[in-house]
Amino acid sequence: MTRVLVVDDEPQIVRALVINLKARRYEVDAAPDGTTALELAAARHPDVVVLDLGLPDMDGVEVIKGLRGWTRVPILVLSARHSSDEKVEALDAGADDYVTKPFGMDELLARLRAAVRRAEPAGPGEDDLTTVETAGFTVDLAAKKVNRGGKDVRLTPTEWHLLEVLVRNTGRLVGQKQLLQEVWGPSYGTETNYLRVYMAQLRRKLESDPSHPRHFITEPGMGYRFEK
């Protein structure tokens, strides 16, 4: 069974999460503060952590940093904070996804399942991802080619690098700062206009309807997600 660690100081939210998770056959531990959360994580080794940022003893970002010091367990942030800066800070610290309160339980559970799937060990032949297929185009990572409708799509080196980072993180939110630093270099981190320009170009070349993208999804103020 998948073990979930819920970290939140609001009893009603914890109760709702515990009931819903247990009903879906998850094992659940709960912590009301950051200190207890770090202790439980070390003792119980959860498969995924659902973490509120507004904790009574420390900021949730500090909990993320504490966990990332020794584990790659998926961390799903659940918070009432709406500002882009705070969301980006949590993602840069090592969170895998972000859900804003108030939240829909179905969406939260879907995000949680996706986080757990991405963390599962790769099966035979999955370690070296080489080809990703969507309904409209195919990305060959080994050959560094994209084929759409039987024809190769010409991408600039920067477009390719951006596409590659997103495809290798399929289904996962990739923060703006991470994208900028991986594609343009470590001295970049705030030039979000670069991302808007190049994402528009990728959509124009690969999406069937660039104004309503199906594969290159924007999470406003946070980053981008590639979906097959």
Describe it for me?
The protein has 2 domains: 3-119, Response regulator (Rossmann fold, 3-Layer(aba) Sandwich); 131-226, Winged helix-like DNA-binding domain superfamily/Winged helix DNA-binding domain (Arc Repressor Mutant, subunit A). Helix 2 runs parallel beside helix 3 (60-68) and helix 6 (157-167) packs across helix 8. It has a 5-stranded parallel sheet with strand order 2-1-3-4-5, sandwiched between helices. Strands 6-7-8-9 form a 4-stranded antiparallel sheet, with no helix packed on it. Strands 10-12-11 form a 3-stranded antiparallel sheet. The chain is elongated and about 55 Å long. 29% of the residues are buried. It has helices at residues 11-23, 34-44, 60-68, 84-93, 105-119, 157-167, 176-183, 192-206, and strands at residues 3-7, 27-31, 48-51, 75-79, 97-100, 131-133, 137-140, 145-148, 151-152, 174-175, 216-219, 223-226. Strand 1 (3-7), helix 1 (11-23) and strand 2 (27-31) form a beta-alpha-beta unit. The model is unreliable at 122-127 (pLDDT under 50). The chain is built from 8 helices and 12 strands. It is an alpha/beta fold.
**What top-tier CATH class of the largest domain fits best?**
Alpha Beta
Structural class: alpha/beta
Q: What fraction strand?
A: 15-25%
The residue-averaged pLDDT reads 88
State the CATH topology of the largest domain: Rossmann fold
CATH level-two architecture of the largest domain: 3-Layer(aba) Sandwich
List segments where confidence is low: pLDDT < 50 over at least 5 consecutive residues. 122-127
Keywords: DNA-binding, Phosphoprotein
Organism: Streptomyces cyanogenus
Protein name: KDP operon transcriptional regulatory protein KdpE
Pfam families: Response_reg, Trans_reg_C
